[in-house]
Amino acid sequence: MTSERASGGVDRTVGGAAAAGPVAFIGLGHMGAPMAANLARAGVDVRGFDLSAEAVAHAREAGVPIAATAAEAVAGARVVITMLPVGRHVLSAYSGSGDGSGDAGLLAMAAPGTLFVECSTIAVDDARQAHELAVAAGHRNIDAPVSGGVMGAEAATLAFMVGGADDDVAEARPLLEAMGRRVVHCGGPGLGQAAKVCNNMILGVSMIAVSEAFVLGERLGLTHDALFEVAANASGQCWALTTNCPVPGPVPASPANRDYQPGFASALMAKDLDLAAQAIASTGVHAEAGSLAAEIYARFAEGDGAMRDFSAIITDIRERSLTTDVAVERGEGTS
Ligand code: NAD
To answer: Rounded distance, CA 203 to CA 211, Å?
Structure first.
């Protein structure tokens, strides 16, 4: 139920069945706090919880009603949303001692039939395990990872990629629409995470390809503008080039124009490509480029690249490239 206000803003008021009953929101970090705040703003009875006092204080300031414990947040909730760092946090929060008190997990605290909506970015296998745990405990579960980053979370413009049963996705949809502007039902359990991992593998590989092409162009004497003009209007066209261009100039809004301030931090790209690498390993797919991209971003994020936009990978490629003098000494670049 998302409608445009006469003022031109977006009225995200959640009505109907979706408005009935409290929603527990577990994990109020960079993403969770603004997402939960948007739900509260839409009229949902939100009960937020986080292990970190700092995250709780920040979320409260942003307008999220806070529960003292996970059990208090989940008591009587008809939906439990989780937004946690990685798969092991989700599995331990579901199964036990997730709130640091040695208590039973969220699944044991919830009333039978509760809908668990897992929004963190985690491995497909972990998402499926979380689903099985929820079902075994008498609940329902969908995976609904997001893209759009903190800015998208704040502006309620996230894209949700959702995996789960039709009825459960339909029930969660009004809540997701209060936090985002695009909800794509990708298939059964785990397939929201699968879509996210596949998309971000395309993104990581294409950013490396675009960056390598710019550095090669530089060495060949091609200006950034000339290469951009050709590739953006030819078969090299892609988001990494035309929206997040790794060199300053051709796309004024890209992070390269502000010293690679993210945007989408390389540490997050490294995390997502590691999830892709896990999926590649578990399926046996011969994905050489995806696996190599995971290695390249892992190395970059270990160094000082972690908090730079992922397009800063071009600076690493440039630094690792032989100088022209060395290339000439080795007989490269001359023929
Ligand atoms: P974050 O580290 O800022 O927040 C995670 C929060 O979870 C922390 O405040 C932590 O204290 C809390 N937490 C951990 N275990 C808990 C538990 N058992 N109970 C209650 N709280 C618990 O992370 P984030 O940036 O908000 O990201 C959350 C998820 O969203 C990650 O999976 C991330 O990959 C994904 N994501 C992040 C972005 C982004 O731009 N930050 C974009 C898309 C997706």
So the answer is: 12
